[in-house]
Design a protein that fits this description.
Helices cover 35% and strands 25% of the residues. It has 397 residues and is α/β, with parallel strands linked by helices. The chain has two domains: 240 residues, Metallo-beta-lactamase, Chain A; 149 residues, Rossmann fold (3-Layer(aba) Sandwich). One of its GO terms (molecular function) is metal ion binding.
Length: 397
């Protein structure tokens, strides 16, 4: 197993088979479930792994400590991909004491029926393992109510739970300085926007609690152990949780026979000719929405369009707008919209309703409603919408 620093070891596992994280988010590169051992006068295990991976997990643990007992198990977060092995760990180490906060213990009882050998910690509580001193910081709603982080003040190592995590299995290397991290950066944004995105204010509160703390390593429960790129990782979470965006447009559309797609193409070309370089386009029925949500968190402008369907809005666009609304995105996002219909138009009206009641982004340009196919007048209107969004973005330069 990999020693991270000062008798702190990585004992996590990789999941290369799961297709959807939480049954929702695609995992083209898999995902890691990270767990850590601190070996001192007392042995402390920090978080566990999904229960399906228990046998390779326990082998990793024994490779580090042999027949030594584990004295403490710190649980920073209770989602089953991190807490699922608690019951089996208790069978192997029946004297182990679970270290967690009050809300965590309620969940441990609810999920696993465990109510004994518990050590409750509060914000600022400390635990000595011998040379290593642990300090506990509560970070509620990042992204569950019981979440906390654990700081090893002896080694300046932060065990951060899901915070600073990302999708992607670890291909041999564990610490960022030993691997090429290029594939992880956009997956960190996708992970944040889909898993944590709604909770920007709690993330900001957590970051404030860690201000001024020296961190040599960040040990998240997903993705690499951060060492060389700590400042970049914290900056990504800081910017995303403040809903800070880059200049760019996400154009996403639904289309049945290609007519609405042609409108999107005209809008994109007009925005490009007006000077916007960052433009991404998505067919909402083809691209998984997690990638669209990722880019909505990255770019300031959104243009959506879809046909009328069953006297309402095309289903996949309705779903996407619901997902965007669920993220409670704040701070300087612009929106424009368009739609098409064969005999009775409702799509444009429905998108307007979504923005007025839920999204509340700044509306830009004049919505375009096309009947049946793209003609000279609707073509010009689509161009005008693309140019209007480009000009609104350029005002922020």
């Amino acid at each position: 197993m990999i020693e991270i620093k000062d008798n702190i070891y990585y004992v996590g596992v990789n999941d290369r088979n799961k297709e959807l994280f939480e049954g929702l988010w695609p995992l083209p590169n898999g995902v890691s479930y990270n767990s850590y051992l601190i070996v001192d006068e007392k042995v402390c295990l920090v978080d566990t792994v999904e229960v399906d991976f228990f046998m390779p997990y326990i082998k990793n643990i024994k490779e580090v400590i042999g027949n030594r007992k584990i004295d403490y198990l710190v649980i920073n977060h209770m989602e089953p991909d991190h807490s699922g092995a608690i019951e089996l760990i208790r069978k192997y180490y029946p004297e182990i004491k679970i270290v967690a906060n009050k809300k965590t213990f309620g969940m441990i009882e609810g999920f696993y029926g465990i109510t004994t050998n518990e050590v409750e910690v509060k914000n600022g509580s400390k635990l000595s393992l011998g040379r290593h001193e642990l300090n506990f910081v509560l970070t509620p709603m990042v992204h569950w109510p019981e979440t906390m982080v654990t700081l090893d003040t002896t080694s300046n190592v932060l065990f951060s739970g899901d915070a600073f995590g990302c999708f992607g299995a670890l291909n041999g290397g564990i610490i960022d300085s030993d691997i090429n991290c290029d594939t992880f950066w956009l997956e960190m944004v996708r992970y944040y926007s889909n898993i944590v995105g709604k909770y920007g204010v709690p993330v900001q509160n957590a970051l404030k609690k860690l201000e001024g703390v020296q961190l040599d390593y960040i040990c998240s429960t997903h993705g690499p152990v951060w060492h060389e790129h700590i400042s970049k990782v914290i900056d990504i979470y800081d910017r995303l949780s403040r809903y800070e965006t880059e200049e760019g447009i996400v154009i996403c559309y639904g289309t049945m026979y290609g007519n609405t797609e042609r409108m999107a193409e005209v809008i994109a070309r007009a925005a490009s000719q007006a000077g916007i370089k960052n433009i991404v386009m998505y067919n909402v029925s083809k691209t998984h929405h997690s990638y669209i949500l990722r880019d909505i968190f990255r770019y300031r402008a959104l243009i959506v369009g879809a046909p009328t369907y069953n006297a309402g809005l095309y289903h996949e666009m309705e779903v996407l707008l619901s997902e965007i609304a669920g993220k409670d995105i704040k701070n300087r996002h612009y929106i424009g919209w368009f739609g098409s219909y064969a005999w009775a138009g409702k799509a444009v009206e429905r998108i307007h309703h979504w923005n007025e009641t839920k999204l509340k982004f700044e509306a830009v340009g004049t919505p375009v409603e096309m009947k049946q196919s793209l003609k000279e007048d609707s073509y010009a209107q689509c161009e005008a919408l693309g140019r209007a969004m480009a000009e609104r973005l350029k005002q922020d330069r």
